[in-house]
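Sat 14:20. Reprocessing the chain from the morning session after the first attempt stalled halfway. Input below, unchanged.
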Amino acid sequence: MSRPCSGLLLLLALASPGAAQSPGTVTWVLASADSTIYGHTDYTPTTTLVPRTVYDTLHGLDSVRVVDSVRVALELRGLAAGLSAWPSGFYCGGLTTGATQQLDSRAVLGRIQLAAACGVRLVLVPPRRRLTVNGQPDGAFSVDSAKRFTDRYAAALPADTLRKYRATILGLNLADDYTCTTCWGGKAIRQVQIAAWAAYARTKLPGLPLGVRVTPDWVQAYPALAPLIDYAWAQYHTRKGDQQTYYDRAASIAAALGLRVVMGVNVEDCYGVGTSACRPEDLVRFGTLAVSHPGSCAFLNWRYDEHTWDAPDVRAAWDGLLALARARPAAECRRVEGAA
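Finished this time. Tokens:
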């Protein structure tokens, strides 16, 4: 190796930061042909964090993934209760213990970790655009698109992560608004499509409860779907008739199918779709029946609205409802054990 070349390599080595070095100045001399070059190099070291990996053959943990170091909150505080679209900044405020959250695969693990640390339980909701033929929120539902979305979730939530956060994740909603043709590119979603998606999700997301955001009679109309999912939904507004009858019927059909039921109130369209938010006295009346119903596995409501939430009389009503939820035992929204 020539003298100038070796000198240049020395210069580069001295100019390169090293984890074991301290900040400082290094002087150097480079002789090249008939010239001698004097100089100095100022440098500041950098530290590179190397991800720690897991080698655990006993528990079957993946040895190529970064260790998840977030501590899971072990204590479940009563029945999961709260609102959809609940701001993540409120998770650790101690107000609610449950939320329905629309989350893409890139954000899902971080949100679950936050929820676990704060004692909040989540129902995960796929962004609608991820489930359509054309990638638009109002496109037609596609089983193939739903499976691709499931693959992305499975990459973000491998089996050991799902086991770790079993208490935090209440379930995954397999779409919603199934009979709304204007919501899904002019075509209603059919039970056979959700059954195909559910069967696929069972293999890719083992142990994750799967559910439909619709009353159990929709599942009852296609019996092959029931064994593939864990829960259905009963969300009340006044145009659905007598509230007690509505919840009782949902609980009865779900029990016959081996399903659980998430119960709640459409608190922003309390008197029918397109109407107004529940008045405080109605919020107390409707919410009390939902949160107290013995057939409910969670008390989750549509939806958080900043203006409504900030009203003092509405907040007072929620304080009472959430206290009722805390007084009930914690529950899971998994299929009834032993059900077909």
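The two ends are 77 Å apart (CA to CA).
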